[in-house]
Design brief:
Elements lengths: L9 E2 L8 E5 L23 E2 L2 E2 L4 E2 L9 E19 L10 E7 L7 H4 L7 E8 L5 E5 L5 E10 L3 E2 L1 E8 L12 E3 L8 E5 L23 E2 L9 E19 L10 E7 L14 E8 L5 E4 L8 E10 L3 E2 L1 E7 L2 H13 L3 H9 L5 H10 L5 H13 L3 H8 L16 H10 L1 H4 L3 H18 L12 H11 L4 H23 L3
Antiparallel strand pairs: 1-12, 2-6, 3-4, 5-11, 6-9, 6-10, 6-12, 7-8, 7-10, 13-22, 14-16, 15-21, 16-19, 16-20, 16-22, 17-18, 17-20
Helix pairs in contact: 3-4, 4-5, 5-11, 6-11, 9-10
Length: 505
């Protein structure tokens, strides 16, 4: 089989991204850590250990009971898996007959005991598939959800030299700074990706955006020696659309083979990846002389501060660059775009719970799930309005029951942890109210429920107890049909505010 398209994506399990094999059922003959080693496996025909033949891979002992062996891999960055390579290089009489792959979503630092517990939910990414020995076995994956860990199952036992997990990074921004302040938007750990290059004969293009400084010359991007006119280039898709205010071009380890000069251009191409000769590129860093084995910082030299989605790095005429960094600060809408990406790639049950924290109407939740993925924050907001417009009185009443009463210290409503936190924040001004104000709120709540048959629903954010009391007393004069529609409108205001909180990365 030829190399599939998904192999051009990021290896989410890469050691350079801090991927790791955290547990396995057995690695008697060869350690499970070998699965993620960079480069192809090697074979040493006369190398043996006290346990048997030395193999450059993971190999379990021969199974003499029912069951199968497995290895759990923590992805270096959470992401959507698009395909895997199960490489059985040099495993000929001892390769597994079949394999399968599963994924789960926990904290990235989940303990092995959590990952192997019965309560851990695993989702099938690849059903049981036949393997060939001493071969590169490629498998496409079609599960559009982000995972933090994968489990490789081998049937029944045997050896696998390498595992590569190709996909699209979906960072957990809640744990890595919430995309506030300056962010390296080219960084692979943040979702940056080198989508194309002119040549990578000596060094892989994706090395350009790996974390940290390069380990050696082979840990950078290096082209062959150019014998004619022209120059080499690489196109980098940034993690988010933003203006850039600082660049770093690092030639670490490149001494006799660094580029003479470099030039960087940017483009705002939200619709897809541009080609290197697209007419929309704008010069960001003029052609600049480079030095050997040096980190070059550029700030004042940048020619504009327009938002960018991609960078074009040119190296003249050829040579090696170890790292490219592109620092920018995201505006509120760009940050929420990252939050939407996370939401769009949640597993269905997790997405349902996230929406339930925004609105308790089952019909509204189902309608929103049917439209996922949204792709843009505008589409999400439009869908929220459209779906709510199609709901009925029963749906409104169901959503009302998911709220605590205004001023209620111990809410009786069945709320999840996230919804409870949001409710507490929305009623923050009420929580500090005097005992007299709380008594008055309790009385107006009772009067409201006796009159209308449902709790007093109001968007409480930023409102104090006196204002909320006045609003409730004014609405007591409505008939039930009119008040129901007022309450439904208030519910939707709350939903819209909570969707904005949901989008916080």
């Amino acid at each position: 089989m030829s190399t599939p398209d998904f192999a051009s994506l990021l290896d989410l399990a890469s050691l350079r991204l801090r991927g790791a094999v955290v547990a396995s059922s057995d690695d008697f003959f060869a350690e499970h850590e070998n699965l993620l080693k960079p480069g192809d496996a090697v074979f040493l025909p006369h190398e043996y250990t006290s346990r048997g033949k030395w193999m450059d891979g993971w190999e379990s002992r021969r199974k003499r009971a029912h069951g199968h062996d497995w290895a759990i891999v923590r992805l270096g960055v959470p992401g959507v898996v698009r395909g895997v390579l199960v490489d059985t290089a040099f495993f000929r009489g001892n390769f597994p007959s079949h394999c399968s792959l599963e994924g789960c979503t926990l904290r990235s630092d989940a303990l092995p005991s959590e990952l192997t517990a019965e309560a851990c939910v695993w989702t099938e990414l690849l059903s049981r598939a036949a393997l060939n020995g001493d071969s590169k076995n490629w498998f496409a994956v079609d599960v559009p959800a982000a995972f933090t860990h994968v489990r490789l199952n081998i049937f029944p036992d045997g050896g696998v030299a390498r595992l590569r997990v190709f996909g699209e990074a979906v960072p957990d921004w809640h744990r890595i700074g919430r995309a506030l302040g300056e962010v390296d938007l080219a960084g692979a750990e943040h979702g940056g990706h080198v989508v194309a290059c002119s040549d990578m004969f000596f060094g892989e293009r994706r090395n350009l955006v790996m974390p940290d400084r390069a380990l050696n010359m082979g840990d950078g991007w290096e082209t062959r020696r150019r014998r004619g006119p022209g120059y080499d280039w690489a196109v980098v898709r940034l993690a988010a659309r933003a203006p850039l205010h600082r660049l770093v071009v690092d030639t670490h380890h490149f001494k006799g083979n660094f580029p003479d000069t470099c030039r960087v251009s940017s483009i705002d191409a939200a619709g897809g990846d541009p080609s290197h000769d697209d007419a929309g590129w704008r010069e960001l860093l003029p052609r600049t002389k480079l030095q050997a084995d040096a980190r070059h910082w550029f700030g004042d030299e940048l020619l504009h501060g327009e938002p960018a989605t991609h960078l074009l790095l040119e190296v003249h005429p050829d040579g090696g660059v170890s790292r490219l960094r592109a620092f920018g600060t995201l505006d509120d809408e760009a940050r929420k775009g990252l939050g939407l990406r996370r939401f769009d790639t949640l597993l269905p049950d997790a997405a349902r719970e996230a929406l339930r924290a925004c609105c308790g109407s089952t019909a509204w939740i189902d309608g929103m799930l049917a439209r996922r993925p949204f792709g843009s924050t505008a589409a999400l907001r439009e869908a929220a309005d459209d779906v709510w417009t199609g709901t009925t009185e029963d749906d409104w009443l169901e959503s009302f029951r998911a709220h605590p009463r205004i001023g209620e210290r111990h809410a009786a409503a069945a709320q999840g942890t996230v919804a409870k936190g949001w409710s507490a924040g929305e009623q923050a001004a009420v929580s500090a109210a005097s005992d007299d104000a709380r008594t008055a709120l309790a009385e107006v709540n009772r009067a409201y429920e006796e009159r209308f048959g449902f709790i007093y629903i109001v968007c409480a954010s930023g409102r104090g107890p006196d204002e909320l009391l006045a609003v409730a007393r004014g609405r007591l004069g409505n008939d039930r049909d009119a008040e129901l529609r007022v309450a439904a409108a208030e519910q939707h205001r709350i939903t819209r505010l909570r969707l904005e909180k949901l989008l916080e990365p």
